[in-house]
Amino acid sequence: MNINNNSIVSKWEEYFINTYSQPDFIIDYGEGSCFFDTKGNKYIDFTSGYGVSSLGYSNNNLKTALKNQVDKLLHTSNLYFNGPVLSVGEKIINTSRLDKVYFCNSGTEANETAFKIARKYSSDKYGEGRGTIISLKDSFHGRTMMSLMATGMDKYHKYFYPLPKGFKYVEKNDIEDFKNNIDSTVCAVILEAVQGEGGVIVLEKDYILELVKICKEKDIAVIFDEVQCGIARTGKLFGYEYFDVKPDIVTIAKGLGAGIPIGGVLVNEKFSKVLGKGDQGTTFGGNLLAMVAASVVLDEISKEGFYEDVLEKGDYIRKSIENFNSTIVVKTKGMGLMIGVETTIESNIIEEKARKKGLLVLTAGKNVLRFLPPLTISYKEINEALEILKDILLEVN
Ligand code: PLP
To answer: Is residue 80 one of the residues assigned to a domain?
Structure first.
């Protein structure tokens, strides 16, 4: 592309609705778990594009499968069956041990669908007036209107009036607050096993066990939003597996497509017949390229040792950072390759310094660095990234 760095920002401002603030370089290609910009500069990617590029940028199985599909056919819509959707449906049900799946295009759309399923189940059984969805404070569930309302952070709600009704927020890990907020209008609760945007916070097992028990007693649907922490990110297929619970509805997206847009909703048997023909639809959901990508991802993560590898690498990164003994590191958190580093200084200062040295990281709130590297990242790349982090974390000591 023929754009020099000075004109990137002005082009962006001229042509685009300005919802992001990107740094002034253009990413050209990826290799391993790194990006290269148009000037040849390398950036180790601890973001995976918000947890999407689960297989990094050099997975030959993924590339070949996608290229083959491009030559064959791109789109059928759900008017007709296609081979890849049938194959991924079977794979995801066998791997997840849930009962049925519905494919869509993004995490927010998956959550919207989950809410529709929970509300329809409730109105079919109890009639109107039982549609409230409880979510946790500091949660993030997406940007479309219902998912936005389920998101437990006020900053995302303002401006977009009138806001959809039927959402309530409770303190995480506070079972009394949850109990106090259950009334006859509640149909569902939505949770992230590890809150990503909210600061890489792992929910407490006892809290989840008690919450799920109460929900089962009261016929309230338990929805786990596994959009960010699912698909092997935490070292298990789903983050909720750490709590030994069985959700009713699970939403997935991001890493399942490894770079191709995808979303999905998995339901247990109880919720498997709530939606019938015509109750929900999507033009692109189950798209051939997305299904081909998901098929490769599911094959790759089921290879022997994959989950152990994710866990080992995650522990290695956390331990290494702790061993820097930097006075600005308060603690490391997260599970597997979903990593948080709480610091005493603002995380965006560190993010910018890291970027200038060739390492891309995410932030989660004011004081948490968030790392979501490709699950296939090599130890060589990890060590290079750790060297950069060490310099920064000790320099600003
Ligand atoms: N849920 C969680 C936990 C997320 O982290 C995100 C995105 O960051 C979403 C939902 C929304 O997903 P999408 O951006 O694909 O709509």
So the answer is: yes
Contacts 24+ apart (CB under 8 A), 392-396: 392/350, 392/353, 392/354, 392/357, 393/321, 393/324, 393/326, 393/328, 393/329, 393/343, 393/350, 394/324, 394/326, 395/353, 396/328, 396/345, 396/349, 396/350, 396/353
Same domain assignment for residues 232 and 213: yes
Angstrom distance (rounded) from CA 375 to CA 302? 13
How far, in Å, is the centroid of ligand 1 from the Cα of 141? Answer: 5
What does the radius of gyration of the chain's CA atoms come to, in whole angstroms?
A: 21
Same-domain pairing of 367 and 273: no
Tell me the pTM: 0.97
| Residue 1 within a domain | no
**154 and 52 assigned to the same domain:** no
Residue numbers of the chain with a pLDDT score lower than 70? 1-6, 397
Ligand 1 is surrounded, with C-beta below 6 A, by 50, 106-108, 111, 140-142, 192, 196-197, 225, 227-228, 253
- CA 142 to ligand 1 center in whole angstroms: 5
Q: Same domain for 196 and 265?
A: yes
What pLDDT does residue 12 have? 87
Residue 66 lies in a domain: no
Whether cis (ω within 30° of 0) applies to the bond prior to 162 is yes
| CATH number of the domain where residue 43 is located | 3.90.1150.10
pLDDT tens digits, one per residue of 85-119: 999 999 999 999 999 999 999 999 999 999 999 99
What is the pLDDT at residue 158? 85
Assess if residue 68 is contained within a domain: no
The domain containing residue 352 runs over which residues? 8-59+304-396
